[in-house]
């Protein structure tokens, strides 16, 4: 027996460590959709029932939804023998070396955890010990497995926390008080830790980058603005200032610098559709070298730009890449109850929303739109959500001259809710302050990304989103289905699910809007926007069931007011 033990403990002399040919930096370029090596191990330790597995699995789900690969190694899934502690640490190290996150949930002794840390540090890999700290009485009250009850009854000997002392970490990287914090709050603290250590990018956090000056610094900022050189901006520029200030363009912290602009222009990896601040050459020459300058609109200083970067704006190239056309008659190329973002997120929380589905529109709501929203809510309820909330989110910035103005659209939307076509108790109507660019599949990624930042996890995409007829040929400028297809593939939209827009038309038999069925084609009538406007201008009514009567009345009032003007 002694001889056999000796043989088992001897190391074979023909085993040589094989160095990888692929470096960690190279591996980081291809693991997940977010470039950069992020391999590390997070060891969650605490009493049984403290919430290690709950928090760990929730964090795993959160990171995977943001395209960061990770895997959980739960203590319940591996036998609690000492040799397995060493093995799980070695396995976690291999996961980390491959560029993935690994999460370990164990309450093993301090010596074992220190050994696991040493294994990682010897390989140059980050290791984070997180103390999941819940009082014993809280853990006992949870006792999902009934282990505390058995330990108190003497059926389990040496149970940690009852008749075996739990060795708390000496200096953990993070302490989570799960008796006081929600699971989501714990996740955000963990993500902040990983962000501070350079493991995850800033865009993974739920933090909104609002750019408003804090109240206690406002007087000082106004004093600065009054003595700084100024640049006069247009109304369109002001709308982009509002978009940035409210945090819709998170993680951007201002107008794009050249590096960010090139990423968007060539890779579409940041926030497609966001804007730069265009200056004249004389402004650039006047301000070159300035550490800061103020933005002025109609004599009012509205923002301060610090550490500005000036670079050439190659307009023809930008137009060709962003809009797919350089036609000078394209409207954006030619000119170039509202909730702020942070208020929206708070409102969702107050309403107890477990799902938020967003519907963007720049046109009046007809019953076909309502049918899509009603059907989405029905499908979410069938999937097990208890309280899905609709974000009806009309675009509030610049639009083409022939689009219905925002104030009239808001009145029309209010009438739709008043008539109960949409449920006012589970609907939030808010204004999305972005200007419209009519950039099709490129712009729709911006629209979806902004709603994701606001807290939406479902986004309804329709036919030809952000599209328009070509200014000269009058044909569709973009292929109508490409916007929806692009959204399902777009990088950076991993935490929002795209809901395809089903085709709705007027069912002449049902006298209501209905989902189109080509097998019953003769029953349907497609009422175009042109026909709708013609009916409204003439004061006629559309077919019964096409639009809520009060909402149609608002629309006819608008078009009749144009004739009076």
UniProtKB/TrEMBL annotation:
Record SUPFAM superfamilies: Nucleotidylyl transferase, P-loop containing nucleoside triphosphate hydrolases, PUA domain-like
GO BP terms: 3'-phosphoadenosine 5'-phosphosulfate biosynthetic process; sulfate assimilation
CDD domains: APSK, ATPS
InterPro entries in UniProt: APS, APS_kinase_dom, ATP-Sase_PUA-like_dom, P-loop_NTPase, PUA-like_sf, Rossmann-like_a/b/a_fold, Sulfurylase_cat_dom, Sulphate_adenylyltransferase
Family: In the C-terminal section; belongs to the sulfate adenylyltransferase family. In the N-terminal section; belongs to the APS kinase family.
NCBIfam families: apsK, PRK03846.1
Protein name per the record: Uncharacterized protein
Upper lineage: Eukaryota, Metazoa, Chordata, Craniata, Vertebrata
């Amino acid at each position: 027996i002694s001889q056999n033990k000796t043989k088992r403990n001897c190391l074979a002399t023909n085993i040589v460590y094989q160095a990888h040919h692929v470096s960690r930096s190279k591996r980081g370029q291809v693991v997940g959709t977010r470039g950069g090596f992020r391999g590390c191990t997070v060891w969650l330790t605490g009493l049984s029932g403290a919430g290690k597995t709950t928090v760990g699995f929730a964090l795993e789900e959160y990171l995977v939804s943001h395209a960061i690969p990770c895997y959980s190694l739960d203590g319940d899934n591996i036998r609690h023998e000492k040799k397995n502690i060493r093995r799980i640490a070695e396995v976690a190290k291999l996961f980390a070396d491959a560029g993935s996150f690994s999460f370990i949930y164990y309450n093993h002794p301090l010596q074992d955890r220190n050994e696991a840390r040493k294994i990682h540090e010897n390989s140059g890999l980050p290791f984070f010990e997180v103390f999941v700290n819940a009082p014993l009485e809280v853990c006992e009250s949870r006792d999902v497995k009934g282990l505390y009850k058995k330990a108190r009854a003497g059926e389990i000997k040496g149970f940690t926390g009852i008749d075996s002392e739990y060795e708390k970490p000496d200096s953990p990287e993070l302490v989570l008080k799960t008796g006081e914090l929600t699971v989501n709050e714990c996740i955000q603290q963990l993500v902040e830790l990983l962000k501070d250590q350079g493991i995850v990018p800033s865009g993974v956090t739920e933090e909104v980058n609002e750019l408003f000056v804090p109240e206690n610094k406002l007087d000082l900022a106004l004093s600065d603005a009054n003595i700084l050189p100024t640049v006069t901006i247009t109304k369109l520029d002001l709308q982009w200032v509002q978009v940035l200030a409210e945090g819709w363009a998170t993680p951007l912290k201002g107008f794009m610098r050249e590096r960010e602009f090139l990423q968007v222009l060539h890779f579409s990896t940041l926030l497609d559709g966001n804007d730069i601040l265009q200056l004249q050459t004389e402004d650039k020459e006047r301000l070159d070298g300035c550490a800061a300058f103020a933005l002025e609109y109609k004599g009012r200083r509205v923002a301060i730009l610090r550490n500005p970067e000036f670079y050439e704006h190659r307009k023809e190239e930008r137009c060709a890449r962003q809009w797919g056309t350089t036609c000078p008659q394209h409207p954006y190329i030619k000119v170039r109850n509202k909730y702020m973002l942070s208020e929206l997120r708070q409102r969702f929380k107050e309403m107890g929303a477990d799902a938020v589905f967003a519907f963007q529109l720049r046109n009046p709501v007809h019953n076909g739109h309502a049918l899509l929203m009603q059907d989405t809510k029905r499908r979410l309820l069938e999937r097990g959500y208890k309280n899905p909330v609709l974000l009806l989110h009309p675009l509030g910035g610049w639009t083409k001259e022939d689009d219905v103005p925002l104030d009239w659209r808001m009145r029309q939307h209010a009438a739709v809710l008043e008539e109960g076509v949409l449920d006012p108790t589970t609907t939030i109507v808010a204004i999305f302050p972005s200007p419209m660019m009519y950039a099709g599949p490129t712009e729709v990624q911006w629209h979806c990304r902004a709603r994701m930042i606001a807290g939406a996890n479902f986004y309804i995409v329709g036919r030809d989103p952000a599209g328009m007829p070509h200014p000269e040929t009058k044909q569709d400028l973009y292929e109508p289905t490409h916007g929806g297809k692009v959204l399902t593939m777009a990088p950076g939209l991993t935490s929002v699910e795209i809901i395809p827009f089903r085709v709705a038309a007027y069912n002449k038999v049902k006298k209501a809007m209905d989902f189109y069925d080509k097998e019953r084609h003769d029953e349907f009538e497609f009422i175009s926007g042109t026909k709708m406007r013609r009916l409204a201008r003439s004061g006629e009514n559309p077919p019964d069931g096409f639009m809520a009567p009060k909402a149609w009345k608002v629309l006819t009032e608008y078009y009749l007011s144009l004739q009076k003007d």
